[in-house]
Amino acid sequence: MSKESNIVCGIHSAKSFLSTQPEKVRRVLIAEHYHGAKLHEIVTIAKENHIQTKSVPRSYLDRLAAKVAHQGVVLEVQAFRARAEADFEDMLDLWKCPLILALDSIQDPRNLGACLRSAEGAGVDAVILGKNRSAPVTGVVHKTSAGALDSIFLVEVSNLVRCLSNLKERGCWIVGASDHSDTHYTAINYRDPTVLVVGGEAKGLRRLTSEICDQIVSIPMYGAVPSLNVAVATGVILFEATRQRTV
């Protein structure tokens, strides 16, 4: 496990993690000579939860956070862990009409974090990741998710296609997103149990993943750019699904 997998950087991310999962925080590191009400609030939350706080040189945080903007605060935390498949199976029995996001080979941690942020904002019940075909869940993912990682039901599965097949058998409608479809993303019904599947940055949906989908939809483009970033496209379709479910 890399160091990056065990840190949370930035004021908003640190406060969110401390507020929701203080038991997973090992230590709070604050850059020397950094002040402000927001940093003071983070220190206060840490002390209330009996978490060690230490002042360190900014250069130390720069090295620890690598290219992530730390804003003067880094949390050392337990490694991020997704839910097990068995937990997901149990929850499926409780969700009456689930809306689920499945991510097929998202390799950029910032895209992964942005997808989680959109999913949480759209009220998605769960996000599914393939264990061997996804960017690892690191501090970069946490920061980009703007805290969504702390509250969303994230599950890792050993075989995404098999998981989608099982969901189909349980009555879920499997909708894939692709540039190569003539079906407008607003033209279908998302009010039934639905799994939205989006593919990786380079090649989109894998062939086996695409073949198991009940429907493939696309987002029309009206400018010179041929397609949207995967995280943006995910948000567009998820919020259409939520709009249909709430009108």
> Structural class of the secondary elements?
alpha/beta
The ordered H/E elements are: EHEHEHEHEHEHEHEEHEH
Biggest sheet details:
6 strands, parallel
Beta strands, count: 10
Approximate helicity band: 25-40%
- List the uncertain runs: 1-5
Strand fraction band?
A: 15-25%
Mean pLDDT: 92
State the end-to-end CA separation. Answer: 45 Å
Please tally the helical runs, counting DSSP H or I stretches of 4 or more residues. 9
Q: What best-fitting shape do the alpha-carbon axes yield?
A: elongated
Structure characterization notes:
By secondary structure, this protein is an alpha/beta fold. Helix content is 36%, strand content 20%. The strands form two sheets. It has a six-stranded parallel beta sheet, with helices on both faces. The longest helix is centred in the last third of the chain and has 17 residues. The N terminus is likely disordered.
What tags apply to this protein structure?
four-stranded mixed beta sheet, six-stranded parallel beta sheet, single chain
Topology overview:
Blueprint: E1 7-9, H1 11-20, E2 25-31, H2 37-48, E3 52-56, H3 58-65, E4 73-77, H4 85-92, E5 99-104, H5 109-121, E6 126-130, H6 139-144, E7 154-157, H7 160-169, E8 173-177, E9 194-199, H8 207-212, E10 215-217, H9 230-246
Parallel strand pairs: 2-3, 5-6, 5-9, 6-7, 8-9, 8-10
Antiparallel strand pairs: 1-4, 2-4
